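Lab meeting, item 3. Inverse folding demo.
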């Protein structure tokens, strides 16, 4: 099935818009024969396909026959967490792909979307019925579904939807932003997070030897090469894998001692691969045809209901990728601490061997300077904190500038998994939260967040459209807190009105 080339003018108008983000649909993880907690968050037990189907039915009923614009705002599919490989692959597989997941190449990405959609058939059927009822769906590409850039992946998705030809134009894929009804700018938000930003969503590909790949940011590589090999960490909750040294030790003895006794070797190997690939990929030029650059910008802008100027100016707000600063990545991966330990041990060993030639000391003397070094190492480790969460929330300067560029009073993001509804000056800012299987514990008993979404509909006469942050539960929805001026960076929780 070919992608529709026409860009219908009807997308410029929308009375009712619904935004959800960060579903993180992935393949179903089979039960581990020895360790039932291994990637339990990926098991079918926590699929929400039926709830999503009920959610679509609910918003259709709530719209009272009006056409709905459903915006799926990034990270709808989690390509990075897919570790399945075909039984009889038609493409070459490396040893790394067999254990950590396929590389982001078009034929391999197509295999991954097929695996995801086959495991989530009820979700696909619900979306198909929704579109056949006269509604439309817009996919904004996030950091974990960057492989949606591939044309064959988009075509495969449409094939799974199995829509009549007249309805395929009701599905649209946008590179990183979309303007709804001229009053709302919708972005996933990863372009303002240095750890997860796509270096160039206009030209997302790079040439690796003789293969074209999507360029992946550091956050994606960390999921693929580290989280995928450490099945007791939940990638949807950062506190689940960003810990202090003491917490890591307790976590190891409680969950990983029997399952992964050599986890330190896995960590060092994975972290080294991530650091190397992040830095090398940062230096590779984007794969772009200079004869079609302007056409590419115009196409991106047209799909986003914006003039080309808006696409160019929004692109200037992007932050620099963290891969530009390898030392920052090394600290996030704890490689700085590993290097420090190795360096001290190497120096102490060299001094010991030199002194041992003269005095003939026992080898156990080497532990004295190592134990003397331990307090300094602990002090250093305690004072080196992760900055991942610090950069996830977009800065107020970026929010204000984006609103001026797009000429809208409202901006909606996803990415952070934290619901928000606030006013920053004259700009209304909302975050639709997440539906992902996020748990604070390995046993998947302490769930984080609710199935939240943003509902935009006509207000009172002359008021224009009004946005509400809502949550869906038990075939019904309820409104969340009223927006307030941003006076702090504290997270807010959902509460019934």
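The presenter then showed the designed sequence:
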């Amino acid at each position: 099935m070919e992608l529709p080339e026409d860009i219908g003018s009807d997308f410029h108008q929308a009375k009712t818009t619904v935004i959800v983000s960060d579903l993180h649909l992935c393949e179903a993880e089979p039960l581990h024969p020895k360790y039932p907690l291994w990637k339990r968050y990926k098991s079918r037990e926590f699929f929400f396909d039926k709830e999503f189907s009920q959610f679509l039915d609910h918003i259709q009923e709530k719209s009272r026959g009006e056409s709905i614009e459903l915006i799926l705002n990034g990270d709808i599919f989690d390509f990075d967490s897919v570790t399945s490989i075909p039984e009889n692959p038609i493409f070459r597989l490396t040893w790394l792909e067999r254990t950590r997941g396929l590389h982001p190449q078009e034929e391999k990405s197509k295999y991954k979307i097929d695996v995801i959609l086959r495991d989530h058939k009820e979700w696909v059927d619900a979306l198909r019925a929704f579109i056949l009822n006269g509604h439309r769906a817009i996919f904004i590409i996030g950091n974990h579904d960057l492989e949606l850039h591939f044309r064959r992946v988009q075509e495969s998705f449409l094939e799974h939807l199995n829509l009549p030809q007249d309805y395929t134009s009701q599905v649209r894929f946008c590179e990183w932003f979309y303007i709804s009804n001229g009053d709302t700018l919708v972005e996933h938000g990863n372009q303002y997070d240095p750890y997860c930003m796509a270096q160039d969503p206009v030209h997302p590909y790079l040439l690796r030897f003789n293969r074209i790949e999507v360029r992946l940011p550091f956050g994606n590589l960390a999921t693929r090469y580290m989280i995928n090999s450490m099945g007791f960490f939940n990638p949807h909750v950062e506190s689940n894998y960003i810990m202090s040294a003491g917490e890591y030790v307790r976590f190891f003895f409680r969950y990983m001692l029997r399952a992964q006794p050599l986890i330190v070797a896995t960590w060092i190997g994975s972290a080294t691969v991530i650091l190397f690939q992040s830095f090398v990929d940062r230096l590779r030029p984007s794969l772009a045809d200079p004869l079609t650059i302007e056409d590419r910008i115009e196409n991106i802008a047209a799909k986003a209901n914006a003039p080309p100027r808006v696409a160019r100016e929004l692109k200037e707000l992007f932050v620099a990728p963290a891969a530009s600063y390898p030392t920052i990545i090394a600290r996030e991966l704890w490689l700085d601490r590993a290097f420090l330990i190795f360096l001290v041990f190497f120096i102490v060993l060299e001094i010991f061997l030199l002194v041992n030639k003269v005095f003939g000391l026992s080898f156990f003397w080497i532990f004295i300077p190592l134990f003397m070094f331990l307090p300094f190492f602990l002090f250093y480790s305690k004072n080196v904190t992760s900055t991942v969460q610090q950069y996830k929330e977009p800065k107020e300067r970026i929010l204000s500038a984006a609103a001026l560029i797009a000429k809208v009073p409202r901006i909606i993001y996803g990415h952070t998994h934290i619901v928000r509804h606030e006013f920053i000056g004259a700009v209304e800012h909302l975050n639709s939260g997440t539906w992902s299987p996020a748990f604070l514990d390995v046993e998947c008993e302490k769930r984080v967040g609710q199935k939240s979404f943003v509902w935009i509909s006509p207000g009172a006469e002359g008021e224009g459209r009004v946005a509400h942050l809502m949550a869906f539960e038990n075939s019904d929805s309820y409104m969340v807190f009223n927006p307030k001026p941003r006076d702090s960076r504290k997270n807010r929780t959902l509460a019934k009105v």
